[in-house]
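INFO worker-7 received task bundle
INFO bundle size: 2
INFO processing item 0
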Amino acid sequence: MGDVVTRWLKEHEINPDISIIDYRIERKKHEWKIGNDEKVLKVKNPPGMITDELWNAIKKAYEMKGRIRIEVEGEEDLAALPAILMAPAGANVIYGLP
């Protein structure tokens, strides 16, 4: 969950099944190359919220096959909560705080 964690994992050749990013680190916009090996779901989610759109994208990502990247326009900080709640048994959810 999050840009810093996703970037670190990819730099260490660990490819998460699902990543959720908003292209922001500590509220500052940043750009980085992620690769094209993932299916992308795009959602809008304002700061401090978990919208139905984000919730449903996380649910859909768990149901899909392959690597999924959820790109959030707005903020993804609270996305870990539904990701943990919906995670299948044995899944790991990695969430970092800057």
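INFO item 0 finished
INFO processing item 1
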Amino acid sequence: MHQCQTSGAYVIRKLVRRSTNFQLTNDLAQSQDAESLKQSTDSELLSRMKCDYMVYFLLVGFFFLIIIILLNKPGLAYIEKDEAVDEIPASLTCKWPPSTPKDFYSEGGYNITLCVRLDPRLSPTRKPKKYPLSYVFRNWKGRSIISFEELGKLSRRFWKLVRYPEVYRTYPQDVPLKQIVKAVKAGLPVTDMPQYNFPIRILKTSKSVCSNSTKHDLVIVVKSGILGWDARTAFREFMQREKARSANLHVGVVFSLGLPRKHGGRLFNREGNIISLPEISGDMLEQFNGKEDVVMERINKEIENYDDIVLADYEDTYYNLTWKTVTNLRWLSAFCNKYHANTFMIIDDDHRMNLSMVAPFLKSASTETMRKSIFGFVGNVDYAYRSPTKKWFLSYREFPWDLMYQYPRGFSQFIGADIIDDMAIVSAYTRYNYSPEDVFLGMIAFKLGIDLHNVDSMYDHTEYAIRNTGRQPAMVAMKDYFG
């Protein structure tokens, strides 16, 4: 009798230990044992009844333990079932990409925020997904579980044992993206709503590039700050000469801009740290601080004179480059012909390309590879910059791991035509407010299983002088190397 009580209490204590989400402290202290069951001093009949009750609760507890383990096992938290949404009629307008840009135009511009519907049979709220510590870290024996938000609070000693690439899968949102992409394209409801589907509207777009029946062998999107009119003028002059040298390659060029910053000048609050944006970017912000009308007057003249600007309504600063990247993906996806060209090019306005090398590059890989991959200068061993006063600072809250997943460096990429729609959709399911735009692209590629290909003739900033000691021709490099 007493043996039954003692063993039952022991098993229940084990169940409580295994099913409790341990309170994370500096070193993730173990939770205390559940209080031992009081031993009965009543009659033998009462003790036998208690023993029976313990067996009953033991079975119930075991059942719930199995459920908890299954729900927190990576890959099983969301069950992919196409039939869960197939019974609901598809929408002709609430889908991505839209059939035509007119479908998402309203007074004032094009709303490129994704239109997504939740399966009405599912809850709109989800608890943050949690992962066994043994999944994220090596040599962990316990059953403790942890969320992405909690990872950044862990002692750094844990990170010596981190599992790559498993830890990257915790980056929000960890949902069945292939199923969701398929549903959004078809106009069907989804199992999970996007948490990063921030409102973005394109206010102006080109009438000569990716408009109506225009066709180009290559569309180039130039990332340019709204105050960079001198850089855009220099880029236009360069492209005029470059197009004349490669007349057989029909190239379309647009500049991607946001709106002027309303206040703050060159100062930014990054995770509680005040950062002063250096160099010309910061100087221009100071010079035009509070002069939105003056800035927009110049931009509107550029639009009228050149018809080569895609203007969106996010605040255009260095720390909003991910917003610019999301805008670029959505614009390419919604406006451009993805059948005539196999890839699209994105480049910073302080870099240049050699079109005589770009033309053969476009044929250097199979059509399938070119259409389904990202090409660029791939960063394979780049680490997070933790100095809180520097421009490139990343906090542990933003990226708790130190080694970034491989990504195409931000100065330039070629993105395949067959993956641009998927990336435009998944951008709403990938965490950002501030995130380095190239690291953000890498996380999207990781989530979708997109191949990244390194191109030796693409040089990031000072890399040309460092890597190309023989001064071989560059397909992409800083403007200084093109004379």
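INFO item 1 finished
INFO post-check item 1: The chain has three domains: 2-71, 130-170, 201-482.
INFO post-check item 1: The CA atoms of residues 354 and 369 lie 22 Å apart.
INFO worker-7 idle
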